[in-house]
Amino acid sequence: MIYEHEIPIGSKLYFGSSAKLKRDIESVASEMFIKNGFEEIVTPFLSYHQHGNIAEEELIRFSDGNNHILSLRADSTMDVVRLMSKRLGRSVNQDKWFYIQPVFKFPSQEINQIGAEYVGINDLSFGIEISSALFRHFSMSPLLQLCNITIPREIAKEFHLDIGLFERGEIEKLLAFNIPWLNKLVKAQSLAQIEEVITIAPKNIADELLKMKKLQEGISYEKIVFSPLFYARMRYYDGLFFRFIDKNLRLGLGGNYECEGSKSSGFALYTDAIIDTMIKIRK
Predict the structure, then answer these.
(1) Cβ neighbourhood burial of 251 (10 Å; 0-12, 13-18, 19+)
(2) What pTM value is reported for the model?
(3) pLDDT (tens digit, 9 = 90+) per residue, 28-44?
(4) Is the pLDDT score of 247 beyond 80?
(5) By CB count within 10 A, which of 3, 13, 176, 209 is most buried?
(6) Helix, strand or coil for residue 57?
(7) pLDDT tens, 102-119?
(8) Beta strand pairing status for 109-118 and 143-148?
(9) E strands, the chain, in order
């Protein structure tokens, strides 16, 4: 029996202090985006094209009046870029957009997000700076993890390894090669360690590490860790990416990607996770 007061598992209910926190976070974020030259976009809840970027089993699907398949918005990034390039590009001269809206995953998961896309520009520093400013405003200091998905892919290709090795964290298989630069890369977490590996690593790896170093030098945040071998299956991030983490809870994610022939950057903050963290801090 389903009682009248029940809500589906994965859906969100905010009231009282949590509703106020949600509104405060979204209001502060909106002001920060506008101050940094972004304009707001609210994409449709329903889309014909989400299946091109999201696994079919994650979509909540319907049919329109002509029996064409559409789905509830499961991702905001590709919708923003697609709408800019295919529908609004000729009439709007703007490449910096932010959104404050939920996405939905099968069977009934609602994920509230605050995010932005810098269409046509690969520059992750904007996402890190705005995210860190928001965290500072609310007296939060999560760990910033800098990653580069190209590095594990290049190593897997070079040594004929299953890319899942990196996803599972099976570091001992890398150490078994007993290659000096690879041994140091496995342990590299600080800027000094990254710089040391750059001097001895093959050029293709050194070049990708230099990108990580350059990103770190372009931001002002103290609580940083480098994770050059961290690998996660990304929908579209194809190079540098970052995560904000607090006690293994992911508060934000951003990265470089290519869509509709345009190299862009974007990020999203997970409002629900931020609210949960703030409530725990205040207790």
Answers:
(1) buried
(2) 0.91
(3) 999 999 999 999 999 99
(4) yes
(5) 209
(6) helix
(7) 999 999 999 999 999 998
(8) unpaired
(9) 39-40, 46-47, 61-63, 69-72, 96-105, 109-118, 143-148, 224-226, 240-246, 249-259, 262-270
